[in-house]
Amino acid sequence: MYHFTPFKQRVFYRCSWVVSHLILPQRSMKLSVKVGVKVLVAALLSLAAGGGVWYACQPRLVCAAPSVVRESIRIKKDQTFFEHAYVLRNKSFRTITIDGVKSSCTCQSVEIPAPVIPPFGKGVIIARFDVARNSAGMRSAEALVFANKRPLPVLRLRMTYSFELGVWAYPELVDLRRVVIGKPVTFTIHVRQAKAEGRPAHAVRSVDADGVSFEVHPVREGLSTDGAASGDATLLEQTVVGRFSNDFEAGYHDKTVTIQTGHPDYPVLTVPVRWESVAGLGFSPAVLHFGVMGPASAAVRSTTLIAESGSLGVRRAEVSGGGFRLEARRQIVSNRVEFAIRADAGAAPGIRRGRLEVETEDGKSCRAELIAIVE
Questions:
Q1: Cα distances (angstroms) measured from residue 114 to each of 100, 119, 123, 227
Q2: What are phi and psi of 339, to 5 degrees?
Q3: 131: Cβ contacts below 8 Å, ≥ 6 apart
């Protein structure tokens, strides 16, 4: 059966009224062309008025400039964000209540000073964008506006922007990840400068970090904002290479690289360097804890033997300690072997201790501690 929407029902009722009240009474009177035209015009005006009222009653939120482009935003020395205000208009007879705004990235946050916008009134959404000091080129962020408990957004806002950065270091953070104890470490930092008319190039004057030796390469020209060679050069770059020996015990460590430049706004750049110092061969976890176990219960836990450099082959694996035994051994990838250990609690309460000892094909040995508590 055909379903009429509320708007179509109103159109049908108005047409029926015109036919029954204007056309049918005139059938016995030889309806003239002039009367017919009047009837038609009256019907059309009635329909247009009804449709216009219906359209104006629907919540409509608009923005004069929903898509904004801001290039080469000048950033002060200690500035961490910039703001942009989107001016909104309610072009309907209904009050609009903004429920929230969903941003496309974490670099953008929004504030809604007055979420309720009266009919034909104005509102504002203030967007804040984080300053990315260590990346050049155009960025973009979107925001979806939801209102009046509707599941779909009523408005989409977009900002495309770039910064006038002066001098910056890339990357912002040097993450060396896992570094074997005793191994030499080499990392690279790029010091870049956006070219501008009448501004001289500011080369790196000095680089310093505790226990690190540095090599500073000459200034390189002819780079575009994405780092590739280009005829219309917009960037100058110097490469700083740092070297040190990882003579640190197992665990997480960090250093801070301090770069002195000749730029008046950015005289000092700092880049943190982080890494995890690990043994060349070791278990993860090194202590396998089975937790608190009940009497006569059993549990199986796994630990993985990792070789940080090269492939790993196991010649021998033994488990010692009362109540522990090797359940299974599996080669995950070329440099990782997983061991499944079973613990049988027994009847007597107390702390059970054991050990997993492994000898590799190249003659190296490693061990993991096993602990279980029986209550």
A1: 12, 14, 7, 43
A2: -120, 125
A3: 75, 79, 80, 81, 82, 163
pLDDT digits 0-9 by tens, 158-212: 998 877 667 788 888 899 998 988 899 999 998 887 665 445 566 788 999 999 9
What CATH topology corresponds to 61-164? Immunoglobulin-like (2.60.40)
SS3 14: helix
CA distances from 183 to 86, 244, 245, 284, 358 (A): 54, 9, 6, 20, 23
Architecture of the domain spanning 167-278: Sandwich (2.60)
Report phi then psi at 8, rounded to 5.
-65, -35
Using a cut of 0.85, tell me whether the model's pTM lies above it: no
- DSSP assignments along 276-343, one per residue: EEE-SEEEESSEEEEEEE-TT-EEEEEEEEEESSS---EEEEEEESTTEEEEEEEEEETTEEEEEEEE
Mean pLDDT (whole number) for 61-67 = 89
Most confident of 24-28, 321-325, 337-341: 337-341
Q: Of 255, 277, 138, 173, which is closest to residue 208 (Cα–Cα)?
A: 255
CB 283 within 8 A of CB 301: no
Assign domain 281-374 to a CATH class: mainly beta
When pLDDT is averaged across residues 98-108 and rounded to a whole number, the result is: 88
Spatial neighbors of 106 by CB under 8 A, at least 6 apart, are none
The tokens of 127 are what? 């967007």
Respond yes or no on whether the N-terminal peptide bond of residue 119 is cis (omega within 30° of 0): no
